[in-house]
Design goal:
This protein has 215 residues and is α/β, with parallel strands linked by helices. It has one domain: TIM Barrel. The protein is built from 8 helices and 6 strands. It has a 4-stranded parallel sheet with strand order 3-4-5-6. β3, α2 and β4 form a beta-alpha-beta unit. α4 crosses α5. It starts with 13 loop residues before the first strand and ends in a 5-residue tail after the last helix. Bound molecules: NADP nicotinamide-adenine-dinucleotide phosphate (NAP). One of its GO terms (molecular function) is oxidoreductase activity. It holds the Pfam family Aldo_ket_red. It comes from Gossypium barbadense.
Length: 215
């Protein structure tokens, strides 16, 4: 499988990729190169037209990046896979994607505790702990139920069979209006700013540029 990383584009022409060949995460700053997003998207549209894929989508796109793609796309992105959890709720992006008919897919819905890119903030959030305790659910289930109730597609990862079962057990109960309201007021902080994609010699010189100010 070939992975294309398209993180941002500040001007009309530039987005970012990694030099072809083998690479490991975290990527090396010297390997960051610009790409022409318009022609990459055209090639992806061709893949769909040829029946090589059912649908095409993007990941980590801001509203601004999506707008740029939509300005020339014949096929709009089906999905935008982005970090989303109670501590980084993506309200602006979700509204934009709703209006454009682009499905949001929530990655790191538990904050990705224990990974290279993760944070403990979600799994250690006092409010989420209180809600979980009051409902007799795990904190992870509260996060997943919350994301599900926002109408997004939820992408959680576990290698543990019991936790996989637990993560699926979120469909026959719901959060109260009061609980949802409290979660919606949690202070926001992006868990994965992706500073490794910022470089003085690369296409993006600051996090503001990388995320088009949406950070
Ligand atoms: N497009 C992108 O840029 C991007 C970036 C990051 C991630 N992703 C994708 O999103 C997927 C999920 O996100 P993620 O792995 O970053 O974060 P996540 O799903 O929020 O968190 C995964 C971590 O939570 C643990 N966990 C899972 N279920 C749990 C539960 N019920 N209770 C307690 N801990 C639990 C897992 O450990 P165990 O395995 O031990 O259960 C793992 O350490 C990834 O597999 C990846 O494919 C995409």
């Amino acid at each position: 499988m070939h992975t294309m990383i398209v993180f941002s584009q500040h001007s009309k022409k530039h987005s970012m990729s990694v030099k072809p060949g083998e690479y490991e995460l975290p990527v090396k700053k010297k390997d960051l190169v610009p790409i022409d997003l318009k022609s990459v998207w055209e090639a992806m549209e061709e893949c769909q037209a040829l029946g090589l894929t059912k649908s095409i989508g993007v990941s980590n796109f801001s509203c601004k990046k999506l707008e740029t793609i939509l300005s020339t796309a014949k096929i709009p992105p089906a999905v935008n896979q982005v970090e989303m959890n109670p501590m980084w709720q993506q309200k602006k992006l979700r509204k934009f994607c709703d209006e454009k008919g682009i499905l949001i897919e929530s990655y790191s819905p538990l904050g990705a505790k224990g990974t290279l890119w993760g944070t403990n903030r979600v799994m250690e959030c006092e409010l989420l702990k209180e809600i979980a305790q009051a409902k007799g659910k795990s904190l992870a289930q509260v996060c997943l139920r919350w994301a599900h109730e926002q109408g997004v597609c939820v992408l959680v990862k576990s290698f543990n069979k019991e936790r996989m079962k637990q993560n699926l057990d979120i469909f026959d109960w719901k959060l109260s209006a009061e609980e949802s309201c409290k979660i919606s007021q949690l202070p926001q902080c992006k868990g994965f700013p992706a500073g490794e994609f910022v470089s003085d010699d690369g296409p993006y010189k600051s996090l503001e540029e990388l995320w088009d100010g949406e950070i």
